[in-house]
Structures are given as structure tokens and as C-alpha cells.
């Protein structure tokens, strides 16, 4: 049995059937994981090993930024500023091989992830459909495989 193919199929199915809120939380979960992995590599002195994780994290934030509808809600412009700041900091952390800077990015992302997870939970409990505030569903669904969510 080809377990890699089964795993890929399972992930594809999970993404295809996920709600917009779940897709957003999946992206944030993967973003935190990438930042953790990058920080660990940097702390162990493996700058080249950290690079792909930081680049992947940048891809995720870039997608979140590109699909953010700044007219959808009052806080969208502030979130846009956070995403822009994160992109700059992750590039700088990668160039400098700076684990403290990477940790600071993770420290900024984790509360956002937690807030989105709480919002997704509340939506699920109340069964009120939620349009994604941070991402458009077709754009996110089309890039989740590329972004390695899962």
C-alpha cells in the first residue's frame, strides 16, 4: 500500500470538505508549525534548514494577505498591516538566521491563530455560516496543497 498516496488523498479530501473557517485555521496551524520548525533549525545552527520553513511561512502569509478583503470588516486594514509586517520580519529572520526574530513572528501569529480557532468554534456551535474574513475560499482551496497544510 502506498501510504504517501493515501495520506495525500486524505488531506485533499479534508481540504475539499472543510468549511471556510476550518481552512483558515488550517493555514494558521501550518504557519505556526513552519515558524516553530524554522526557529528550531536556527537555534541548532542550521540556517539552510530553516530557510524552507520560513519561505513556506511567507507563502502562507502572502496568500492570506492577497486574499484579505480589506472592505469586509473594520479590523481588516490592521490585519493587513500585521501580515505585511510579518512578511518583512520573516524575510529578515531568514537572511540573518535570527531565531529570536523568528520566535517573535511566532509570538505574533499564535494569538491570531487562537482567535481564529475560537471564532471557528463559535461559528460551529451556533451553526451560523461564516464567510472567511481573511481569505477567499476558492483562492485558499486552490493553494492549500501548495502551502502544505496538514
Q: What does this molecule look like?
A:
- It is a single chain.
- The chain has 150 residues and is mostly helical.
- It has one domain (3-147): Up-down Bundle (Four Helix Bundle (Hemerythrin (Met), subunit A)), CATH 1.20.120.340.
- 79% of the residues lie in helices and 0% in strands.
- It has six helices and no strands.
- The chain has helices at 3-17, 20-43, 47-66, 76-96, 99-126, 137-147.
- Helix 2 runs antiparallel to helix 5 and helix 3 runs antiparallel to helix 4 (76-96).
Order of helices and strands: HHHHHH
Helix % is: over 70%
The CATH topology annotation reads as: Four Helix Bundle (Hemerythrin (Met), subunit A)
Which residues form runs of ≥5 with pLDDT under 50? 133-143
Number of helices: 6
Shape: globular
Strand percentage, roughly?
under 5%
Going by CATH, what is the homologous superfamily? Answer: Flagellar protein FliS
CATH architecture descriptor text: Up-down Bundle
Structural class: mainly alpha
How large, in whole angstroms, is the Cα Rg?
Answer: 16 Å
Amino acid at each position: 500500500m502506498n501510504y504517501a498516496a493515501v495520506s495525500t488523498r486524505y488531506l485533499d479530501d479534508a481540504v475539499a470538505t472543510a468549511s471556510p473557517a476550518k481552512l483558515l485555521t488550517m493555514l494558521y496551524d501550518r504557519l505556526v508549525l513552519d515558524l516553530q520548525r524554522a526557529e528550531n533549525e536556527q537555534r541548532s545552527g542550521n540556517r539552510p534548514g530553516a530557510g524552507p520553513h520560513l519561505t513556506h511561512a511567507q507563502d502562507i502569509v502572502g496568500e492570506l494577505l492577497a486574499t484579505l478583503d480589506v472592505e469586509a470588516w473594520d479590523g481588516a486594514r490592521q490585519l493587513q498591516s500585521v501580515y505585511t509586517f510579518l512578511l518583512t520580519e520573516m524575510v529578515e529572520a531568514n537572511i540573518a538566521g535570527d531565531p529570536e526574530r523568528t520566535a517573535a513572528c511566532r509570538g505574533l501569529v499564535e494569538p491570531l491563530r487562537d482567535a481564529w480557532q475560537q471564532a471557528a468554534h463559535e461559528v460551529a456551535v451556533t451553526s451560523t455560516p461564516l464567510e472567511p474574513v481573511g481569505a477567499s475560499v476558492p483562492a485558499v482551496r486552490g493553494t492549500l496543497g501548495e502551502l502544505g497544510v496538514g
